[in-house]
């Protein structure tokens, strides 16, 4: 199914065609708060796993953190692939096919697919082959809104959003329109990645989104034969950036072939080797994020879901 067919498929099931997003944006903003919440009404926290730099392993990190939260921490977890142009979550989560649609409510809602106890939604479910999604900002934002608000997430403790790289429309749209509980930034140790990650941190601070911390991916490589540890991309940069922003380093994920091979196979290491050392790194990251969410929840208003949309 090409992206054009995907838009027609959604429209035929009760969703306005994404191709009319720009023309209908004003009308969409006039919807009531209750109408906008839709599938988010029972979601307690939304967190962004993000990086302003591509190629740092952000999606792999988001998947393993989400699976760790669900399978090891016992949380009710959702995972939203916000990268409309390059959706990789279906591959990483080993999920295929178009989602079903629930038309019983006031508006049709997509039913998320599930694997590893994580409810998942991605625009990649609607695509086949390698045709690019040639859309501009308003259409991308509309597609993102359809998946965010128009999915029947049900009761979730945490909705993990795998953000696209950059500091553009998707990040601003998410940061301005819903109360993110926080953002965790993923970076490799090298300076060229950290420059962009710092820009991403500044963007979220301007949007008044709390920074949960930094995740250092590809932190080091340990030789499988002799155990020698080598910092291929440098060392210390992520810790310095975290200190500059007054946040913690949530974890240091090593550069390991098993992470790559298992991700490509759709079997994230947290699920395929849940008691292994690699899984343990992601579980620690998930636990630290959850601890911060609990602390922020205790500091805020007690009771009821935290999602309110103006």
UniProtKB/TrEMBL annotation:
<keyword id="KW-0547">Nucleotide-binding</keyword>
<dbReference type="GO" id="GO:0005739">
    <property type="term" value="C:mitochondrion"/>
</dbReference>
<dbReference type="Pfam" id="PF10609">
    <property type="entry name" value="ParA"/>
</dbReference>
<protein>
    <submittedName>
        <fullName>Uncharacterized protein</fullName>
    </submittedName>
</protein>
<dbReference type="GO" id="GO:0046872">
    <property type="term" value="F:metal ion binding"/>
</dbReference>
<dbReference type="InterPro" id="IPR000808">
    <property type="entry name" value="Mrp-like_CS"/>
</dbReference>
<dbReference type="GO" id="GO:0051539">
    <property type="term" value="F:4 iron, 4 sulfur cluster binding"/>
</dbReference>
<keyword id="KW-0411">Iron-sulfur</keyword>
<dbReference type="InterPro" id="IPR027417">
    <property type="entry name" value="P-loop_NTPase"/>
</dbReference>
<dbReference type="GO" id="GO:0005524">
    <property type="term" value="F:ATP binding"/>
</dbReference>
<dbReference type="InterPro" id="IPR033756">
    <property type="entry name" value="YlxH/NBP35"/>
</dbReference>
<comment type="similarity">
    <text>Belongs to the Mrp/NBP35 ATP-binding proteins family.</text>
</comment>
<dbReference type="GO" id="GO:0016226">
    <property type="term" value="P:iron-sulfur cluster assembly"/>
</dbReference>
<keyword id="KW-0408">Iron</keyword>
<dbReference type="GO" id="GO:0140663">
    <property type="term" value="F:ATP-dependent FeS chaperone activity"/>
</dbReference>
<keyword id="KW-0479">Metal-binding</keyword>
<dbReference type="InterPro" id="IPR044304">
    <property type="entry name" value="NUBPL-like"/>
</dbReference>
<dbReference type="GO" id="GO:0032981">
    <property type="term" value="P:mitochondrial respiratory chain complex I assembly"/>
</dbReference>
<keyword id="KW-0067">ATP-binding</keyword>
<dbReference type="InterPro" id="IPR019591">
    <property type="entry name" value="Mrp/NBP35_ATP-bd"/>
</dbReference>
């Amino acid at each position: 199914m090409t992206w054009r067919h995907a838009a027609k498929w959604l429209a035929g099931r009760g969703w306005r065609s994404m191709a009319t997003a720009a023309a209908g944006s004003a009308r969409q903003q006039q919807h009531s708060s209750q109408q906008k919440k839709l599938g988010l009404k029972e979601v307690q926290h939304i967190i962004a796993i993000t990086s302003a730099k591509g190629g740092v392993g952000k999606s792999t990190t988001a998947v393993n953190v989400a699976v760790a939260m669900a399978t090891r921490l016992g949380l009710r977890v959702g995972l939203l692939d916000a990268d409309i142009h390059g959706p990789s979550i279906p591959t990483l989560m080993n999920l295929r096919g178009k989602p079903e649609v629930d038309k019983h409510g006031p508006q049709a809602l997509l039913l998320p697919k599930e694997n590893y106890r994580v409810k998942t939604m991605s625009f990649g479910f609607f695509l086949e082959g390698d045709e690019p999604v040639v859309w501009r900002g308003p259409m991308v934002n509309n597609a993102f809104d359809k998946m965010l608000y128009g999915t029947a997430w049900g009761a979730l403790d945490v909705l993990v959003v795998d953000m696209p790289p950059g500091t553009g429309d998707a990040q601003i749209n998410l940061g301005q329109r819903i109360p993110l509980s926080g953002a965790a930034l993923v970076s490799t140790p090298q300076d060229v990645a950290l420059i962009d990650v710092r820009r991403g941190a500044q963007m979220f601070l301007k949007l008044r989104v709390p920074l949960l911390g930094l995740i250092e991916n590809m932190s080091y490589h340990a030789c499988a034969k002799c155990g020698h540890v080598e910092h291929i991309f440098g060392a210390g940069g992520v810790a310095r950036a975290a200190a500059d922003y007054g946040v913690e380093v949530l974890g240091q994920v090593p550069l390991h072939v098993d992470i790559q091979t298992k991700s490509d196979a759709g079997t994230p290491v947290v699920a395929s080797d849940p008691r292994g050392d690699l899984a343990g790194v992601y579980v620690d990251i998930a636990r630290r994020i959850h601890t911060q969410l609990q602390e922020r929840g205790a500091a805020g208003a007690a009771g009821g879901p935290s999602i309110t949309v103006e």
